[in-house]
Amino acid sequence: MKNIFIIAGRELSERIKSRSFITFSLLGPLVVLFVLYILFNSTASETQKISVLVSDPIEQLEQIIVPDNKGQITYSFINSYVEPSDFVESDLFSTFDALLVVNEKVLSNNHVFLFQKQRLNTKVSQKIQRELEKRLEGLKAKEFTSLTVEEFLIVKHPLSMEIRDAYRPTDKQNYRLAAFAGYAFGLVIYVFVFLFGMTVLRSTTREKSSRISEVLLAMVKPSELMSGKLVGIGLAAVIQFVIWFSIIGGGLFVMRALFFPDMLDGANLLANNGDYTGYNDVVKLVYEQLNFTVMILFFALLLLLAYLFYGGFFAALGAAQGSESDGQQFLIPLILLLVISIWSGYFVVENPDHQFVFWLGIIPFTSPMVIMVKLGMGYDSSEIWQLLVALLILLISIVINIRIAGKMFQHALLNSGYRLRLAQLLNWMFRKS
Hints:
By secondary structure, this protein is mainly alpha-helical. Strands 2-1-3-4 form a 4-stranded mixed β-sheet, covered by helices on one side. The radius of gyration is 30 Å and the shape is elongated. The two termini are about 20 Å apart. Helices cover about 65% and strands about 5% of the residues. It contains 17 helices and 4 strands. Helix 1 (about 1-15) packs across helix 9 and helix 9 runs antiparallel to helix 12. The longest helix is centred in the middle third of the chain and has 38 residues, at about 220-260. The model is unreliable at about 265-270 (pLDDT under 50). It folds into 2 domains: about 1-40 and about 175-430, no CATH class; about 50-155, Periplasmic binding protein-like II (D-Maltodextrin-Binding Protein, domain 2, 3-Layer(aba) Sandwich), CATH 3.40.190.10.
């Protein structure tokens, strides 16, 4: 056991002192925070004030376009045609953000132009279109039908379908978005597994090709060497995980204080029944819906288990390579398993109740991803046993995999000058020690 800790300390020291480790530890969470800021800031399009000049030469709109109750868009009317060049250059129109040109045949051709000084957000331009459509529907009702405006709007009103959970009918939470949040956690797990698994592979391959492993094996057992590598590099992953979530957690708190201060206002929450009114679904998901304590605890646990599950094979594959470039063909199936695992998370998001989801949730190759997705959506009380079974199978698989990988590592590490073949790998896997 002492030798394992010595080797683990050596691997850990080598990892945390590398420039790539420091860069990824600091730059990675900043990139995540930047992406979250972009997603959060998408709500700005729903709160910024837009002033629109409506060019209506024959005054068929009667200077009426009713904006929604948020008052985001204000309309001003002019009963003459305005050239886009004049709209941009004239000081008379300097306070307007967009020009809406309504032609005299709009009731029949359903065609208008919107000239924008700066590119408007898609949601804003769609909102202008919907509000103009409502006004035109009223005018069409008077001109082409015998219905009143109110009757026409009842007939024309689009269907609104809100999807909710039958077991939680009063719950308005966005479970699809929460599932994607779990998918993001799972994706980070597999990114870490791949990066640190490749670190194990490269480290083993480098020591084997430089014959450092021969010196090490004169003092320690092959199983101790492999275990030490896995533990040391795994500790580096844990340290990086702590740095990531410390920076991301602090960044989220700062963003809430700077950009969403009324979230901290108890009176505002009380008045809106605890709902962060005015913010988009991503903001509500991060600051209200997700149980970060549970998500982070399971993230740490599943990161460790997934790393141990795959890490042994990365170490064994590194030891089995006959040369620096040999054995790459055997890395492809391992990468393919990681890709399938990432796909499985998306499959669960799109098909949460498919019967195949159960099997994806207990197969150890894909279970870490599926568990994170289902945690994002929320496990039902009747599904807890599936979570426990998945973790148990994953633990048993780790024990079996490490034993198999240990045999491959032991028999392959001191061999060199050969062309690696599948039959040889199988021989090392099942050869008695």
